[in-house]
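hey team, just a heads up i'm posting the complex here instead of the shared drive bc the drive is being weird again. everything in one block, sequence lines first with there labels, then the predicted structure for the whole assembly after. its two chains so it's a bit long, scroll down
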Amino acid sequence: MSEPATPASAVPAGPTANGPAHPPTDAALARAARILSGDVRPDDYLPITPEVRRLTDRELEYARSRYATVGITELEPEVERRQLRQNLLLVHCKHQHVAYIEDDTGIVVVITGLDEIGELLRKLPAELWSERIATDYPDDSIWLL
Amino acid sequence: MPSFTVPISVRPADPDPSGPIRRLVSARVPVQVEVAPGRFVGPPPFVLDTGATYTTMSTTLARSRGIPFPTGTSRVAITTAAGIRGGLVRDGELRVRFLQLPDRVFRLYCVFAEDVPPSVPPVFGLNDFLDVFRVTLDGAPRLGAPFGSILFETLI
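-- predicted structure starts here --
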């Protein structure tokens, strides 16, 4: 597990790790409120790193091979978008509880951490997050049962 | 009755070049859970688990997401791949809606388990899920779903 790093407003796009249970900082909540209020900045979006691209390209290659078996020749944009976003969360937020929003541009992490998400939901007005916020625990573990 | 499909999630994998595992398939189903009247939050996607008796969620996860659960607990014998053990659970329910069918909220019985870590994804088990949905798992590639899809047909 990495060091705790619920992103502060000084690090706009850098949700990097979960950490031990603790409440979010005021700066983290202020950043979350800013994003949920609609003030999303370009560097808030999770970046498409070479690793994100590599994973996505491998999955799209596999998808094309699956499509070829039934005569479909072109991948729809929605497939690439779905795989890309899955990998953005996996690469940037693996093994962390993460709350995020999506728009046409990409994914913006609102806050990370189990307790931090809870605090956000309790402290920010529901109008800001209801029906908008998604949460996940990105993980590529193999489940045998 | 309304129906919707969810693409099956697949990731190519090669953890052991001489072994059998070549792809990781997951029946992940994104949902929103009602945490207060008219207020919804998206927990981690549920996994549709035909081997699970009940829809189950970690109590710690539910607490974090503000999902209401009963205060009363009971201790039951829980069988997992790791064996049989006692577990502290709470009998509750979830009010869920699916992104593809946002106008409908479905009430599902749910076991909130104290001993399940919050990193474990919540699962849709069979208990009353099949009273609400007819489910078809279809691995055939189709438009928008190269790895197949899950068809949910509402029954109520």
